[in-house]
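Worked example 3. Consider a protein that binds magnesium ion.
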Amino acid sequence: MISTLKRDLRAYGAIVATVPKMFMAYSIWVWMSWFVQIIAVVILVAFWRAVFSNTATVGGLDLDTTINYLLLGMIFRAGQNTDVLYEIGEMMRDGRIGITLLRPLDMQATYYVINLANMGLNTLLSIPIALFAWLAYGLSLPNDPLVWLAFLVALLLGNAVMFCFDWIIGCVGFYSTEIWGLSVLRYGFGLFFSGALIPLDMMPDWLRTIASVLPFSQALYLPVSILAGINPVSAMPRIWLIQLGYLVVFLVASRLVFGRALRVVTVQGG
Amino acid sequence: MIEAVNLTKVYHIPDKDPGVRGAVKALFRPRHTSKTAVKDVSFAIEPGEIVGYIGVNGAGKSTTIKMLTGILVPTGGQVRVLGRDPHRERVANARDIGVVFGQRSQLWWDLALRESLTMVGRIYEVDDARFQRLISEFSETLELKELLPIPIRNMSLGQKMRAELAATLIHEPRIVYLDEPTIGLDLLVKERIRAFIKRINQEKGTTVVLTTHDLGDIEELCRRVLIIDNGVLIYDGSLETIKQRFGKYREITFETAADLNGLDVPTGADVLEKGGRTLSLRFDRTQTSASRVSASIMSQIEVIDLSLKEPDLSMVVKQIYQGGLKETA
Ligand SMILES: Nc1ncnc2c1ncn2[C@@H]1O[C@H](COP(=O)(O)OP(=O)(O)OP(=O)(O)O)[C@@H](O)[C@H]1O
Ligand SMILES: [Mg+2]
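Given these inputs, the predicted complex is written out as structure tokens:
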């Protein structure tokens, strides 16, 4: 049992190791994304300063908390934005799915670890953005290690929920090979309902209810609000439980859908 | 070892009218055309065989291979590979097989070959000592040494194919499926790859299923061939048998001094090609002879040159692809 696990870890570890190497091969891309994100930070701060120009709080949040929350959301957004849909779409279109399925690995587990590696790497790559936000706008981070721990657990749980959610949508690609439209919808909804654009606290009640029922906030609002001090650490056990519930539901559903989708997959080309 | 019973695959191709309106219409009222790519194909392959799987473009070779490897679910019939259903037990099956799709790479585009191979070795859980031994073995047999530090994207087609074979065989699979492994390669690389396939088959007893359009591959490697035509298996047997069966035909070509018209074709011969001042005939060796055919032509027209073609595999296969098996059956 232990040795099987060890061998599996080695195999999935090998897959993970490819991720940073891919990034390294396209360093120009990294520079571009830094540039774009720094501009986004500047616009974001200017916009919210304007919003708060004749009011002290919106939805119970003051200017500093709001900006701090949104900047942190930007830095840790990779947890919510999995690349799964894009990856599956490409794979179906060019037939690489065949190669992937020929590996003696569980495909979903493989992509989960790739997603983790991507999230880690993307977060590391936002360090320069964090640095810029800190220098220019005094981004503040909690000192309490307990807060960081609570954040990390919530981020990993939330990311796993989003991964399973995206996996289910990705499985549609097995039927139609055309999931571009769906992925546009998915990322659009994700941007808004995750709380990446506006903290959920500022939404009217009905909208906030929708946003908390939809899974998008699991990997962004929930963890980041702890880090930004909007939710206290004492609220965590309840949040984790909710996240676990979501995870179980989406994990089971994604396994079911995936099992069915594999039966209809057509491998293009050859 | 590999067993297919009434294997059938029907593809459903969505009909889409062009443009946005077509796309919207397809969304609400999807229509399909069905295409039967493989129909009722049955065969069994024993351990240690090298089987050639041939047929014209679009005959259904790749579709069959995909079903055998477990990545495509058959519409009907059964496959068993090493006693398993390759789709249901995809992961277990994947450990025992290796697959090369000549058109597609399993290697990581941006990684140096050595890194790619290490990765594959880890994924298949090859132990380090064994891995090192195989790398040095392949470095020799596939001449990989200079390629190890080069990323795949910088390789030529022939280099890539050698790399691909190494990656496919690094976990020493019991069965390898090679879908056009020599496509687009020069003669020397082809030779090297054939020698390599032969060697792993002889030394390790690896079972090989090979599709190809290069009959040299077949001639050199396969004692047994399967021929598929329009999704239907039309021949399963030894290469020798079809060669003998069709080997009774010879091809003879004449170059004449004057234009050909109103020529009597000698008995026992058929016209293969006729144009300007050249005439190609095919004759049945059991009914007539080269001298009789040429004498008959020479008596009718002045012949400048003539050539007699030995029956080779390409002629045999051409006849079969053109329906020869049906005629003589
Ligand atoms: N994904 C697919 N969807 C629809 N039809 C397909 C698909 N793949 C193959 N076909 C059709 O099935 C038939 C068999 O294709 P297949 O790729 O198996 O041929 P092949 O024998 O490998 O040909 P080639 O020698 O050209 O590689 C072809 O008519 C092809 O158009
Ligand atoms: Mg093919």
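Take a moment to read the result before moving on. Residues 52 and 225 of chain B are 5 Å apart (CA to CA). Chain B touches chain A through 35 residues (CB under 8 Å).
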